[in-house]
Amino acid sequence: MRHPPRSGLLLVAAAVALVGTAVAPVVTAQGATPACSVEYSVTSQWDTGFQGAVRITNNTAAVSSWSVSFDFANGQKVSQGWNAKWSQSGTTVTAANESYNGSLATGASVSAGFLASRSGTNAVPTSFKLNGTTCNVDSDPSPTPTEPPASSTAPALHVSGNKLVDADGRNRRLLGVNRSGGEFMCVQGRGIWDGPVDDAAIKAIADWKANAVRIPLNEECWLGLSNIKPEYAGANYTAAVKDVVAKAEAHGMTPILDLHWTYGQYTGNSAGCSDVHATCQKPMPDMQYTPSFWSSVASTFKADPAVVFDLFNEPYPDRATSTTTQAWQCWKDGGTCPGIGYQVAGMQDLVDAVRGTGAKNVVMAGGLAYSNDLGQWLTYKPTDPTGNLVAAYHVYNFNTCANESCWNSTLAPVAAQVPLLAGEIGENTCSHSFVDQVMKWFDDRGLSYLGWTWNTWDCSSGPSLISNYDGTPTSYGTGLRDHLRAINP
Question: What is the pLDDT of residues 17-49, one digit of tens each?
Fold first, then answer.
C-alpha cells in the first residue's frame, strides 16, 4: 500500500487534571495483583458530550509500547484526545502510546484524556485491556506459556519449481497479513511500531490461522542515518525488527521483511512526496543506500532460512518513463532511469546484494504499477544463482489488474514457472467481496496471499483488518479471518 495513515484521530496537546465525577473502580481479590489496572473517569460532562480520562498501570514485565482498549455501551463517540493516539471502530475505543510515553516499567502508570459525544446515558466502560491482556482482574497464578512448542516454529523455506517448500519438500503456501508501522513510525519520529508487538499481539495474528506476516521496513531507520532519531534508528531499530521476527517464528509464522520506504527525491508523475528522505513510496529503490540496506539485512538473517526478503514494496517506474520497455529495463537493471532524478538500484542489484552475503533466503520481487503488473516479469526476471526467487504481486479493488481475465492472462503464466505470492490484497469498501474473489482465484491454484493490513486504522482510508490488536476484525477483516480459519482448521 502506498500511503498508510500516519495517526488516528486528531490529537490535542493539553494537560487535564484527573478529577473524576464517574470512575470505574479497580476490583481485585485481597492480596492479588492484577496484570494491569485501568482507572476510568469522567472529568466533566454536558448535554451532548463529556471529557474522560484513563490512568493505566502496568504490573507485569516492562513494555516498550502500549495500547489500551475498552467498549462504550451507549453510542458514545471519541472526537479527539491527548497523550495517546485515540481511535474508535464501532463501540471499541483504542488508545495507543505516543512516541514519548511508550515505555511502561513494572509498576509504572500513564494517563491520557479525550473528548467524546454522547446522547443520554453515559455508562462507564466495564472492561479494559492493555496490549490484549484484561486489566482489573486477578493475575493467573499459573499462566499458560506464551511460547508455542518447537513443532510450531516457522519452517526453513526454498523454491522448488514453481512452489515454496520446506526442508522436507512439502509445499508451503504463505497465507497471512501485513503488519505495517516499521516503515513510517521511525522516520516520522514517533516510535518504531504502530501499536503493540508484544507476544500477545503477535499471537493474535497466529490465532487467525495465519502462517505468515509481512513486516514493512524503512531503509534510513535500519541504516541509522542522521535524520532519524537515534532511539528509533540503527541498532535499536534492528533489535526491534529481530524481536518481531523471533516472535513471529515462535508462533509458526514465516516473517517476510519488506523494504517499503527508501531514499531519493522524486517529484514526477504520481509522486508520493517531494522529500528526498524515506518518507513515502518512491518509484524505485536508490543505489546510494538500498544495496547497503539489503547487504545488512541479509547478513543479519542469512543463518535463518525461515525469513523471506521482499526486495521493494511497490515499484512504479512506469509512471516516470515514457515506454513500458524503458520501465522494465529500469526495474531490472537500474542506473540512470528516464524521469527519475536519482541513481536507481535495479532488482538485479538487490538480488546481487543479498546473495553477495552468502544468504540463500527466499527473495521476492514485485513488478511494475505498484506491483500490480507482472506482464513482462518473466522476460526481465533477475538472475538468482540460488534459484530462490518469487514473483510478488499486489492487488486492490481499485487497481488496473483486478479481475479474473487479467489474472488469467498475466499472472497464470508467471505462476506456472515460479512461486507467486500476493504480498498485499485488500479493498477500501470496508467489506470483503473483492478479496473473497482474489482468495478464491489464488486458492484454486495453490498460491499465496497476505491481507493488508494488521493495524487499527479506518478501513475505508487504509484497508484495516482489525479494530483492536487482540485480533478483533473489522467488517473487512472478517472475510480474511474466517477464510483462513476455514482452510486451516
Answer: 222 334 443 333 333 467 888 988 888 888 899
Global confidence as pTM: 0.73
Please enumerate in sequence order all residues whose Cβ is within 8 A of that of 434, keeping only pairs 6 or more positions apart, or say none.
396, 397, 402, 427
| Tens-digit pLDDT profile for residues 296-344 | 999 999 999 999 999 999 999 999 998 999 999 999 999 999 999 999 9
In DSSP terms, 419 is beta-bridged to none
